[in-house]
C-alpha cells in the first residue's frame, strides 16, 4: 500500500452538464415499462449465470473425471464465477439489482458464496467510486510495490517488466480476496480513505458463513470425491480464469493513458464530481453485444460511475445521453471501439508506467454510443 498523504481532493457537484444529463435520465427512468423490462432482463441474466455455474460445478465434481471434460468444466466454472460478479454481485452491492433493499442485500451475498466478502468489497469499491484515479484515495490504483498504475506513484526498477508479470498477479486476485485481503482490510480498519468498521451481527455472520460455505463447496466436497492433487489443480485453474476475467474488465476503463489521473499534492483545483467521473474513465466495446451481455454493462463504465444505482441493463441507453451531453458541454467522452483496442491500451499504459518518462498514447476513437442490446 502507498504512503498516505495530504491534502484531500476537492469536489463540487452539479453544473450544466450534470443538470442536462440528469433531466434526460430522469425522463428515461420515468418510463415504467422500460424500467420493469430492465429489471426482468437483469434477473433473467442472473438466473442464466447461476445455472451456468451450477451446471459446470456438477459436471466437474459429480459427472465426468476425464481430463478434457475436467479442463473444459474448470474453464467454464471460472468464466461463470466471474459472470456472477459481473451480473449479480456488482449490481446488488450498488443497490441496483432490485428496488427492495432486502433483495439487494441477499443477492450481494453471491460474492460471499464465491469466497469474497460483500462487506469489505463494498467499502473498498465505494472509495473507488468516490475518488476514481485520485492518488492515495482510490484503492483500485494502489498495487504498490508490485504494480505502478498512477504517474504520481514511485517507479521501482521491476516495474519495467510489469506489463509482463502483472498478468500473473491478475490471475490470483480472487484467491487474494478469499484468503488474504478481506482480512487485511478488516485489520487495517479502512479501504483507501473509507473507514471500515469491524463487522458485527448479521454482517459478521454472513462473512464467516460465506467463507465456510465457499471452502465447503470449492475444496471440502471435491476432496471427499477426488484425489488432492487434481482438486488443487482444478481450484487453481478455475480461480485463475475468474481472476483474469474480473481484473481485466475492471482495469480497462481506468488504467489507460486516456483516463485522467489526479494527484492532490500537485493539483488542488476544485473539480466537478460528475465531470471527473467522465474524464477519469474510458468506455470500451459498446457495439459488442456478447461482451456487453457477459460483463454486466461494465464496458459502459462511465455510465456506471454516474448512475451506479440503476440496473446495468440501462447503461447502453444512458451512454447515448451522456456522450451527447458531454459533446455539447466540451467534455471528453472517450471510448475504445473494441475490447482488443482497450486491452492494447491497458498493456501500453503498464509499459509507460514502467518507464521513468511515461508518454501519452494515441487517443481512442470516439464512436457514437448505441443502445444496449439487452433492452
Outline type: globular
Question: Biggest β-sheet, characterized?
Answer: 2 strands, parallel
* Element string (H = helix, E = strand): EHHHHHHHHEEHHEHEHHHEH
Spatial strand sequence of the major β-sheet: 1-4
Helix content: 55-70%
Ends apart, CA distance between termini: 41 Å
* Separate helix tally: 15
Which secondary-structure class do the elements indicate? mainly alpha
Number of strands: 6
Task: Walk me through the structure.
The chain is mainly α and 375 residues long. It contains 15 helices and six strands. It has helices spanning 16-29, 32-63, 67-93, 101-108, 110-113, 118-130, 162-170, 173-188, 201-225, 228-251, 273-279, 289-294, 301-306, 315-328, 339-353; strands at residues 10-12, 190-191, 194-195, 270-272, 283-284, 335-336. The model is unreliable at 359-370 (pLDDT under 50).
Short characterization:
With 375 residues, this protein is mainly alpha-helical. The chain is built from 15 helices and six strands.
SSE arrangement:
Blueprint (H helix, E strand, L loop, with lengths): L9 E3 L3 H14 L2 H32 L3 H27 L7 H8 L1 H4 L4 H13 L31 H9 L2 H16 L1 E2 L2 E2 L5 H25 L2 H24 L18 E3 H7 L3 E2 L4 H6 L6 H6 L8 H14 L6 E2 L2 H15 L22
Helix pairs in contact: 1-14, 2-3, 3-4, 3-10, 9-10
Descriptive tags:
59% helix, two-stranded parallel sheet, mainly alpha, two-stranded antiparallel ribbon, single chain, globular, 6 strands, 375 residues
Amino acid at each position: 500500500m502507498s504512503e498516505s498523504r495530504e491534502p484531500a481532493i476537492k469536489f463540487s457537484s452539479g453544473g450544466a452538464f450534470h443538470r442536462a444529463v440528469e433531466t434526460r435520465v430522469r425522463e428515461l427512468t420515468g418510463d415504467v415499462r422500460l424500467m420493469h423490462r430492465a429489471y426482468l432482463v437483469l434477473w433473467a441474466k442472473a438466473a442464466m449465470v447461476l445455472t451456468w455455474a451450477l451446471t459446470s460445478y456438477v459436471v466437474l465434481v459429480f459427472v465426468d473425471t476425464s481430463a478434457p471434460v475436467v479442463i473444459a468444466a474448470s474453464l467454464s466454472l471460472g468464466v461463470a464465477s466471474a459472470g456472477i460478479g459481473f451480473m449479480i454481485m456488482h449490481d446488488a452491492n450498488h443497490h441496483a439489482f432490485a428496488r427492495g433493499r432486502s433483495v439487494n442485500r441477499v443477492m450481494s451475498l453471491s460474492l460471499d458464496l464465491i469466497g469474497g466478502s460483500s462487506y469489505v468489497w463494498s467499502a473498498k469499491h465505494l472509495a473507488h467510486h468516490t475518488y476514481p484515479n485520485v492518488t492515495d484515495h482510490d484503492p483500485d490504483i494502489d498495487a504498490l510495490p508490485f504494480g505502478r498504475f498512477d504517474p504520481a506513484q514511485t517507479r521501482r526498477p521491476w516495474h519495467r517488466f510489469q506489463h509482463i508479470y502483472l498478468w500473473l498477479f491478475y490471475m490470483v486476485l480472487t484467491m487474494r480476496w478469499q484468503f488474504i485481503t478481506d482480512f487485511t482490510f478488516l485489520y487495517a480498519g479502512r479501504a483507501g480513505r473509507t473507514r471500515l468498521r469491524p463487522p458485527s451481527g448479521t454482517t459478521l455472520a454472513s462473512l464467516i458463513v460465506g467463507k465456510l460455505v465457499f471452502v465447503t463447496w470449492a475444496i471440502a466436497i471435491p476432496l471427499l470425491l477426488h484425489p488432492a492433487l487434481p482438486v488443487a489443480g482444478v481450484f487453481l485453474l478455475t480461480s485463475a480464469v475468474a481472476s483474469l476475467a474480473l481484473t481485466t474488465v475492471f482495469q480497462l476503463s481506468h488504467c489507460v493513458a486516456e483516463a485522467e489521473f489526479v494527484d492532490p499534492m500537485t493539483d488542488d483545483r476544485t473539480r466537478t464530481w460528475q465531470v471527473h467521473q467522465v474524464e477519469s474513465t474510458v468506455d470500451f466495446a459498446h457495439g459488442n453485444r456478447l461482451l456487453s451481455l457477459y460483463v454486466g454493462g461494465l464496458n459502459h463504465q462511465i455510465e456506471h460511475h454516474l448512475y451506479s444505482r440503476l440496473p446495468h441493463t440501462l447503461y447502453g441507453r444512458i451512454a447515448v445521453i451522456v456522450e451527447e451531453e458531454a459533446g455539447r458541454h466540451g467534455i471528453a467522452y472517450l471510448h475504445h471501439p473494441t475490447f482488443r483496442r482497450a486491452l492494447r491500451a491497458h498493456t501500453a499504459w503498464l509499459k509507460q508506467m514502467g518507464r521513468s518518462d511515461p508518454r501519452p498514447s494515441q487517443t481512442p476513437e470516439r464512436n457514437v454510443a448505441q443502445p444496449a442490446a439487452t433492452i
